[in-house]
Amino acid sequence: MQTVTNEFQDAAGKSSFIRKMFEKGLELKQKYGADAVCDFSLGNPDVPPPAAARAALYKIADDAVQPLGLGYCPNAGIPAVRARMADYLSRQQGLALTANDLVMTVGAASALVCFFRATIAEGDEVIVPSPYFVEYGNYCGHFGGVLRPVPTREDFTLDLDAIAAAVSPRTRAILVNSPNNPTGTVYSRAELEALAALVEKVNAARGEKGERPLFILSDEPYRAFAYDGADVPAILPMTKFAVVVGSFSKTLSLAGERIGYLAVNPALTQLDGGTLMSTLILVNRTLGSVNAPVIGQKLAAALCDSTVDLAIYKRRRDLMAKVLTDAGISFTMPRGAFYFFPKAPGGDDAKFVDALLKERILAVPGAGFGRAGHIRLSCSVDEKIIARSAEGFKRAAEACR
Ligand code: PLP
User: Fold this and answer.
1) Which of 109, 142, 162, 186 is most buried by a 10 A CB count?
2) What are phi and psi of 151, to 5 degrees?
């Protein structure tokens, strides 16, 4: 009996590499005890939210026990929260936004899904520099969109010529994610400006023919995670065709509370008479979210100007870099986010991941992110675990050479 569509019947059992490693990790932890396993597979932020979250939650609790305290709210978000986010995003992006230029969403994930629902028609293409976050293909695929990965250069910077060459009449968006999951790369201002110029050029030609525009969609849940003074340039002012999505999953460790946002360049709202924005609000409702979680909205509004203790992530990054260097594993030093994307010694990522498993170290093969020959490590674990993994990395690397 087939209970689901052909698409999902075929996909059944093909759960993501990350999930598989997560399940493998649970099995190992049950067998040997949680302390015996070094789990670098999932990006679930483990650093506690800022201390101010406690008082904010008590205040929210007091307000919540009123009639409609936790009731439905406007589909775009609580008006006071949207106004606060407009102020926050105006400062972050260096461009004056009003509450009407943004919608509160169920994390960055739902913001991306809403954007694709509003803009993608069957067969439309979304260009993404690869390696890339594995879920993107699923998000646009729900609406018949096709992901077009364009490899970055060896050091994970953008190959702008290759991106320009990949743009076709079906290309609807160029999706960038900086700081990047899985590589930790932060794209430079020059790279993003060149991308914005490309989008303007394409749209000038499309506009003359009355065709649908090309967007830059910037996925920024790791915006606050930048090290060594790295600048994370704001893309929203670079072109009126820019759309930014983000969340508080990582910056405030609110991943399970599911709170994010989508903001559009105000000039775009003027250009299309607000159609994109009102459609985004509509699909936020009709895709089933109705509105972003009320507790999460209020928490985000109270805490958005703070972050978790980023020094913890910086120390972990430096320690992981030492562990990999000592094991003779080559990698590009991440300048943002909390991931490493090192080369698999011997070149076979699946083999190296298996060798690491024997050492009770969990990693994800790079093939799942669109670049084989590498592995992804998530540093959302305690420094003690990173330190403990050192000998295992050495032995596994040796076994694969
Ligand atoms: N985009 C990237 C690059 C991510 O790594 C993640 C989560 O790991 C998301 C989007 C979704 O994040 P959320 O929906 O929790 O904001």
Assistant:
1) 186
2) -60, 140
